[in-house]
Structures are given as C-alpha cells and as structure tokens.
Amino acid sequence: MIQGIINILINNTGVQNEVGRNKANTKYKVYPVACPQPEDDPYIVLTITKADVTIAKGCDANLDYVLFDAYCYAKKYEKVDALHTVVRSAIHNYSGSASGYQFHSIFLDDYNDGWATDANLYVRRATYRATVSNVAT
Q1: Which of 1, 70, 116, 118 is 20 to 30 A from residue 54's alpha carbon, by CA?
Q2: pLDDT tens column, 81-94
C-alpha cells in the first residue's frame, strides 16, 4: 500500500520540486519505512502504523482501513513546512489507483512537529487515513 502512496507523491510536480532527487540521481527522495543513509535532506519517509481489514460477510475482502504516517525531514523548518504542504496537496482527499491499489479515500488526520536527534533534522509527522483495496492481479 505504501508503494502506491510513494508513486502518487513522486509523480506530483510539487513534491518533485520540494524533495529533489537522491545523491545517485536515480529517484525522488520518498522512501518506505526509513531513508537509506547517507542521504541529503530534505526527504520523506512513509510508514503504515495500523491496518484494519474488512472481514464481514458480504464485504470486499480486500478492503482495508489504513493509518499511515508521512515524515518530512529537513535542516530548515521552513522546508519541513513546504514539504508537508505539497504532500498534503498531493494525497489529502485523493481517490484513484496506484501500484495495484485502489484508493477510495485518503484524508489527513493529524500532524505534529519534532526534532530527529539522530539525523539532526526537523521532522513533521502527518497521519493519514486511507480506505484502500488491493486490486493487483
């Protein structure tokens, strides 16, 4: 499911412009679970935090309700704010398909700021709620 969100983000020009490409210039800096090190900021990391699956009679067995976090990292707080804004613009209220998943809805639920001591970077964690079906064949 996270790969679908990554594909939505890396195909968004606002995200592309804010996050940039990795050191090897092979991809935009949006990663699942953790950022490979060493990598220059800014970058975005996505993680699933909770998934409720549908198992009721008569319901789509592939329908999940997923909470995921989008972490935006940067040396400058203003850049964290800009990253959060383009991520939110790209996925909040999104519906469509990506990477074999049908996203019925994605909504921003909550966000907060922090400091990533190990990376020496500002970070904003934004939690999103997604209703998604796996439609991969």
Answers
A1: 70
A2: 999 999 999 999 99
